Amino acid sequence: MNNYTEEQIAFIIHKREVSKRSFNEIASAYGKKFDEAIGESDIQLCYEKYKNIFQEKDNHIRTLKSIHRTKRGNSYTAKENRIILEEWNKRDDIIQAIENRIKKISLTKYKIPKYPKSKKKKNMTLELLFSDVHYGKYIDNIDGNFVNCEEIRRRVRKISESIIKEIERESKSFNVEKLILAMIGDIIENAEMHIMESQKGCEFGSSRQIDEAIESIWFDLLLPLALTGIQIHVPCITGNHDRNGTKKTYQKPGEDNFTYVIYKALKRMAEQSDLKNVTFDIVRGIYTSVDVYGNTIVYEHGDELKNINRDTMNNLMSKRQTQLGKVVHFYRVGHFHEPVTYGQGRLMVNGSVPGQDDYAEGKGFASEALQILNYYVETEKRNTCFFRSFPIYLQQK
Fold it and tell me: Among 10, 194, 216, 346, which lies 20 to 30 A Cα-Cα from 129?
């Protein structure tokens, strides 16, 4: 046999180099996997011919080898091999989707206007909590709420339009010098996260979800805000729906999950478009912090919290404070889809973009279609610089 598919070649190489099988054992496993009888000598010839084909140019194969070296004592089942090959194929689909999206978007060099400042006004920073967007989610008229990709994009445009109006309005009294665009996870819905349950709740697959997320965040949110001339800082956190695979990982989830591809694509597009007023912080772990007028804000997705109440949020906030080695004044999460605030803006849970769905309806949760915009003002008289909050309601009534 001379013609092998990439999947067949990968199967043989994986069985030989990772599972350490003999050529006779591989031939037997090959027959069961592909329903095709093949001899031991043919397996050996195929391996010798193609064994170096992925060696240096495919990071995914090197990653698989590294992962499986830690599992040498374990037995390798056919199920494990299928999962590896499925992940490889999924990876190729995602890479192709990103390449197609970058080719489709014609990047222009933008001239950013200089945002006017007055020494007589106090400085103000705005903060958008942008989370639980769930590109690809499909809600079929639950509690009067219909959501598809077109509706999600309409809602994201409403967010940027509302912020631009707030910048114009607040600029009459303050120097609105910065916007923190806090992307704190669950950017996509993920069609594979809960297998059939996830697929039923999606309009399309994960590859297209990534594609749609990049296009929408760029054209509907980031670019319109950047063209106001305001300085924009983008902390980038991953969420549980953004993960690559069905199980959560603590090993650099910010790089392992799908959001890494989305955030890196947006960063490169901003650089190529000469948006010098936009900076990114793409986090490798699960949380990050930003300083505003001497106060520290911690951002994470929130799936580490078992539930939302003052005590659980305070406890995790205290742990982050110990890890950072400095006082944390504000703590921001998403995940629960229900907006909650404790104290004067101290602890805050964001809403979601899609709003009420089948899961929330069945569990008795109240998921609201809104995103939170916060205001901070430079001050010497108050305990913190937090000024007020403004919920941006997204569902058409």
Answer: 194
